[in-house]
# Entry
Amino acid sequence: MTSTATIHYLGHATLLIEIDGVAVLTDPVAGDRVLYLRRIGPSGHPWLRDLPDPDLILLSHLHLDHFHLPTLRRLPRDIPLIAPAETVPFLKHIIPQNMEGLSPGESKRLGGVEIHAVPARHGRNWLRTPLDAAQGYVVHGSKTIYFAGDTDIFPEMREIGDMGLDLALLPIWGWGPRLGAGHLDPAGAVEAIKLLRPRRVAAIHWGSFNLIGGQLLGLRAHLIDPGDRFQRLARERVPETTIILPKPGEAFGLD
# Structure
C-alpha cells in the first residue's frame, strides 16, 4: 500500500508534511546555529534545497528556536504563511511572505487540505504579547495530522483528539538539560496521548540542538534520555499507540 502522507523531519519543530499534493512546512529553522544553540544532525540548508518548495508555512509561535528570520527570508516570497493572529501586525514589518493570521477555532483550505488552528499552552500565557502567542495546527486531508508546535498539556486536547488523529507530532523535551514551564516532558507527552488518542505519535522538539560548548561540558544526556524514557513510558501506558522516534534528516510515511 502506498503512503498518502510523507513526513520529512529536519529536527526540533521543523517538518515538511506532504499530503494530498500539498507540502506544508512547520516552524522553519534551517540554521546550523541559532543564538547559543548548535544543531545536532544534518545541516538544514541542503535539507530545504533537496525537498520541494512548500505550498504553505505554519508558524506556531515566535520563540527563536521556532521562528528563524534567516530561514524565512531565503524561502520564496510567494509562499503563504499562517501564524497566530496576534503576531501578524508585528511580522508584517520583518518578513517578506504573504501571511494570514488564524486564531484557535479558525481554518484555511489549500487544495484538498484544510488547516485548523488549535490552542497551545506555552510560555507566559498570562502575558499575551506577540512573542507569547502560541498555537498548534491540525492538517486534515486524507490523513489527519496534529502539529503541536510547543506546548504543555491542556484540556482542549481531548477535542483535538475527537478529530480522529492519524498522527500527532508531539514535543517531548527542549534544547537543554532543563525544561521550563509550558513544555511537555516524556511523562507529560504520554498523558497528552491519553487525551489525543492518535494512532501514531512522532516525538519532536528534542535531541536536535545543544548549547554551544555543551559537549565539552558533558551536557549530553538530554540528547538521548528523553526519547528512551518516552518510548518506555508509552509502551507501559499507551501500548495501543505506535511510537515513532524520527532522527533529524529522516522521513516516514503514513498509509
Q: What stands out?
A: The longest helix spans residues 225-237. Residues 5-246 form a domain with the Metallo-beta-lactamase; Chain A fold (CATH 3.60.15.10). The radius of gyration is 17 Å.
